[in-house]
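Protocol step 4 of 6: structure prediction from sequence.
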Amino acid sequence: MSEQSSEREVHVWDLPTRLFHWSLLALVIVAWFTGEEEGAAAQIHRYAGETIAGLIVFRVIWGFMGGEHARFADFAAGPAAIIAHVRDLLSQDPKRHLGHNPLGGVAVFLLLAVVAGVVVTGLFSGEENNAGPFVGLWGLELSELHEVLFRVLQGLVVIHVLGVVVESVKARDALLPAMITGSKRRRADEPGENAKRAGFVAFIGALTVGASVSLALMAQQPAFNAHIGAENNEHYPEADQD
């Protein structure tokens, strides 16, 4: 029996985790290419960011209630585990991980934190018709920090992609296809069972909260526009009587 025929398919990534991954990537790209534009493109940029906000909320909830390998507890690793993984990766035959390896786990936490930072600062960034819903609130305008964090995010994405390539080649593990199909192939002598799935109620709950956050943000008028409107009403009270 050949090595390939003795392999088995192991289900690793649940559908919500995969949809989150690719949706986040697509929306970050949309936000990237509409960030410097005005008019309709600026509105798309804002909506992309506010949709990402809901995605992040969903992923945080899913990190506690999701499938086995989607949970933060499955891939949270301390310094010792990370160092051991790096040493193992430099060996001739590194161990393959079903879920995120320790370095991959660090990447997930960093990416979630930085994306969240980009979104929050974006909510407080912009001017006139190209503005987040909270710009001007508490006197905050965070466009510069928003730009810096986005550059940090771009760097992390490059490092993440390089890490996936290195891990895939060194450990001979098809990480990219696994995030599409949800499954990895394992030899008969390798440990690994199908991941435990989350309940449908948990998915609906996380999806509802995430979608509600996005819709609530989209419904907000920029704070400085509301402030200007209030000032206009004070100066021209007769306008309210028409």
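Step 5 (inspection) to follow. The two ends are 86 Å apart (CA to CA).
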